[in-house]
């Protein structure tokens, strides 16, 4: 974590010398924005309330049109015709392939993959919703003709894993940015937290772009981290002279961190080492206050990650954290083959982990303070390549938490007929009708970002959302999603 700065000081004094090495080069492009931010008013919500965001990355590009399936007969017929061998049977009962949702929007009905029983339960209990046909967009693209005309900008590296997974984390569709959505929020809101040394951004999946800011990178831990094993690996107690050797290691690290360096990169490394040691001690003390949860978590890596996040939320006061952002990844979604069988393995892990985490938040009395959502590189082609599906574009994601309007399908679930105007290829590749920018904007505003700061947090937002700093109004067809109560 970077050195504690007040938000006002950050906005007024931001310079390359103040930036961590991980974001140094990409930060040059943000300096103009930072200067603009410093010159205008910022309105923060009550700094004593607590809010947390949990982002679950489904890495690889999830086939989300087999997660959320239309069941009104004509729409389901289109689904079956288009998806062919990878279509799920809504009439199958032994075993079930689809579970109906308690949802009817003017005759439109839907079901979820039968592997997502707990998601179905939360949706029907108004605790979870879907965002339909969402994806990366540089600007609105109305249809295939507009897409093919070349008059509208497209996201960089469309259909590329590396580019699209980056853009979901950064919400910068036209450049390869090292600075993420969560990181930019931490840059301007970090002084809402009261203890130096631990970042607002905590990762259970190591280094990531989503949480990397100009000043505040993520703080990484493992799901087995507790007050006894956090920190640098030491010499086992049974080893001869273990105490002396551990003191020697600690002294060497401290000495390296406290050296005075002329080279800015050496100095940055020393500062980061010193801050890491400080963070370890703060975290160790905080985790010592964890009380075992009554909520039972499954024995999967994702569930273990979500349990650890719940434990950290439980001791947020010991970390001085009024705002926290968590990031976790579950990989393996690049299903070019055997998509149905592989989703039957992975989807229950996601469904159960989200359900368990939702129960843990209720146990801690944090239901209304925490939102959890999924993201992924992209959706998959509607047509099959034989037994799987390939890289596509707009798809379906989930969001849950007390502040969210539950039991809803936000956005516009598209027709799955291959003649639909949103389909840009014979494979069934859909233009998103809801942008990542619109989705993140509503999250940012709930989290406490001022409307005045939205164009820093989301540099591409003015193409979709009328904030106070937009020089042009977005198209009238692009309106706020309305996810929050």
Question: What distinguishing features does this structure have?
Answer:
485 residues; alpha/beta; Alkaline Phosphatase, subunit A; 9-stranded mixed sheet; 3-stranded antiparallel sheet; globular; disordered N terminus
Mind sketching the topology for me?
Layout: H1 7-13, H2 24-27, H3 31-38, E1 51-58, E2 68-70, H4 73-83, E3 98-100, E4 110-113, H5 117-124, E5 128-135, H6 144-149, H7 161-170, H8 181-189, E6 201-203, E7 219-220, H9 242-258, H10 264-287, H11 301-314, E8 323-330, H12 339-364, E9 370-376, E10 395-400, E11 409-411, E12 434-435, H13 436-447, H14 454-457
Parallel strand pairs: 1-8, 1-9, 5-11, 5-12, 6-7, 6-8
Antiparallel strand pairs: 2-4, 3-4, 5-10, 9-10
Please outline what is shown here.
The chain has 485 residues and is of the alpha/beta class. Helix content is 33%, strand content 12%. The protein has 14 helices and twelve strands.
Structure description:
There is one protein chain. It contains 14 helices and twelve strands. It has one domain: Alkaline Phosphatase, subunit A, CATH 3.40.720. With 485 residues, it is α/β, with parallel strands linked by helices. The protein is globular and about 60 Å long. The chain starts with 6 loop residues before the first helix and ends in a 28-residue tail after the last helix.
Give me the count of strands: 12
The whole-angstrom Rg is 23 Å
Question: Which class best fits the helix and strand makeup?
Answer: alpha/beta
List the domain count as a whole number.
Answer: 1
CATH-level-2 architecture: 3-Layer(aba) Sandwich
Highest-level CATH class: Alpha Beta
Largest sheet: 9 strands, mixed
Which runs of at least 5 residues are low in confidence (pLDDT < 50)?
Answer: 1-32, 232-236, 264-274
Instruction: Give the helix tally.
Output: 14
- Helix and strand succession? HHHEEHEEHEHHHEEHHHEHEEEEHH
